[in-house]
Structures are given as C-alpha cells and as structure tokens.
Amino acid sequence: MSNEEKFIARSKKFRLHFQLTEEQIDLLLLGKNLVYKGIESSRRKLNVELMEAYPLIYGLDWSTFEEDKDTYPVWDDLPEATKKIILDTPYTAADDVGENGLKNTASYIILAIKHLDVGTQFSESEITRCLPYPLKKGVTIYLNSGLLKGTFKKLRRSRKFKNEKGEEVSDPLYLIHKPMDERLIGKAKRKLENQ
Question: Is the pTM of this model over 0.90?
Fold first, then answer.
C-alpha cells in the first residue's frame, strides 16, 4: 500500500468516525482552495497541500495523523470550526433544496461560512460548490442588502484558473472581516425552517 493509499484510508476512517460527509470536509477546507470530495473514490488526485490541511480539521499535525494508531482526538481537542460543523449543519452539498432554495441563497451562504475565522479569504467557486443543488450551479452573491450585508466583503482582486473547457476564468475573492454572531446564524436557520 502506497503512502497516498494509506493517507486516503486513514482520512476516510477519521471522517466516518466523526460522522462527517465529504461535503462537510469541503466546508471545513473552505478558504484554502482545496477540494476533498472525490479523493476517497480516486476521482480527484491527492496533493501535498490537502495532505497538510486535512489533519488540521481534527486538530492534528501531519506527522501525528500519519502514525498508524487507531486513536482519535477527544471532543475537547477538536477545533471549534469542526465542532460547529459536526453539531450543526442543516444541509450538505449533496442535498436538493429545489426552487425554494433559490429564495434563501443568503441563508445557505451564512450557514456555509459560519465556522470561518475573521481574516479568512474564500472564492466564489469555493462557496458555490458547498451549497446544495440548484444553488451550486452558480449564484450571485449580493452583499449590499439582506442577511449578507456587512458579513464579508468582496476584494478587488480575484483568483484566475482554467475551467474544465480550458478557458481562463476569473474567480472573485471575499474576506470575512467580522465574526458571525449567533443572532445572524439563528436568523438564517429560521428562514430555512420556514421555507
């Protein structure tokens, strides 16, 4: 078994132990420009950046994670972001919220970024892939009104990459500049419960 295969097997064991989905792992990697979904099924290649970032989800460094022990971190040692995702994720990117979801885009975005720290940058494509269908097909993020007003700001620069068709795409970047308060998160949850 190669090092990559061992890492993938260990990653899956950890993910299943904490009852996380691949989509929830992608939420925890938001802002790092990394994608976990597809690694376990070999649809996506494992890279060094992901191998370094994945153990941090559980509060471990890479060398500790690589040890062949079957011990998992205790709840108190998990990072706060991981605890928030485990305890309170009302949807995943695998869900289909239908046409009603289009009316509550801001609520889904708030719940996707609630675990991010102040100063975290993320791109529009990173947030869209973490949203449920049909929102993950592409949404426009309106920051001037509604729930999203003042929660994060659009930066004047963007990340450039090539899409599946080989076309160069400019991906807008956003920055969390103040912490998400519980009132805002509660309001987003209520809007989704009432749809």
Answer: no
